[in-house]
Amino acid sequence: MTDGALEFFKNILETPSPSGYEQPVQAVVREYVRGFSEEVTTDAHGNLIAVKNPGAALRLMFAGHCDQIGLIVSYIDDHGFLYTQPIGGWDPQQLVGQRLTIWTAEGPVLGVIARKPIHLLTEEQRKQVPKIKDLWIDIGAKDREDAASRVRIGDAVTFELSLQRMAGGLANSPGMDDKTGLWVVMEALRRTESEKLACSLHAVSTVQEEIGLRGARTSAYGIDPQVGIAVDVTHATDCPTIEKESEGDIKLGRGPVIYRGPNNNPVVVERLIRIAEEQNIPYQLGAIGRATPTDANSLQVTRSGVATALVSIPNRYMHSAVETISLEDIDHAADLLAGFAISLTADDTFVP
Ligand SMILES: [Zn+2]
Prior knowledge:
Blueprint: H1 3-13, H2 23-33, E1 39-42, E2 48-52, E3 59-65, E4 70-76, E5 82-87, E6 98-104, E7 107-114, H3 123-127, E8 136-138, H4 144-148, E9 156-159, E10 164-165, E11 170-173, H5 176-191, E12 200-206, H6 214-223, E13 227-235, H7 244-247, E14 257-260, H8 266-278, E15 284-287, H9 295-300, E16 307-315, E17 323-326, H10 327-343
Parallel strand pairs: 3-12, 3-13, 13-16, 14-15
Antiparallel strand pairs: 1-2, 2-12, 4-5, 4-9, 6-7, 6-9, 7-8, 10-11, 11-17, 14-16
Helix pairs in contact: 1-5, 5-10, 8-10
């Protein structure tokens, strides 16, 4: 991984993008991909589309969703405490005791979210799982007026955003779901830079995946690809309490996961596996027997159907402040997708 590519990864992780509030991260992506894309556009939904070799009859789309889960400020009480609604799927326990950032028009406002200390919880309360509606954000405001002068109803909230490198080539940050996928699709595009492609390659930073796979739906309709690959995270099962019998054997650092199952076109899957084997790219196989909860679902059923595959990055502690991935896995995933794009010929068909 080049220094520039690693810097880009850090930048997107440290830029907020709750669903519907992706504009700041799209600005970072736009600036970065300009250097190696022939076309960069943004549609009315907010999807950013970077293209190489536009105009070719065979259209290949890569989708990595740039949105992350967050909160939206919905009420300020008399004392200046903020109440929120979730954006995306939260385990409220992940929030208690965290530093948060409210992203306002005037810039970031720092706050904390917690609940009353254990000493003050009744026996009954200790057993209860907190609900988001019962948790408040404290920004240090004096009262409602003071808070309202700094935060507006509808402002979005994230965990404090920062990338932390760990031993063994691992790293943690909020939003690895799915800034890793976003990074992979743009890095794959960059890695085709010196190659002549037989297809047009559309690398898309999709929006609003976390609230219903929505940006992939609109962008795929617009691009009308014959082939599409979504890159998202999947649960690593190499930590305590996760059952391999039901969740499969997925380890950090063992390579991207190529999924098999009805959401995946078998011709695309076999080609991905062949490329990984030929180029000595480590990979793992995963299986999902239904439509996956990823952009691959929207992609596959676009228009009259798209030959779709899902490539996933193993991730521990999904939808938490400390989502943990292996940097080698994203590097290998970018090689795999670039290799796939380069392998296409104009007369390839993907009818299974
Ligand atoms: Zn995701």
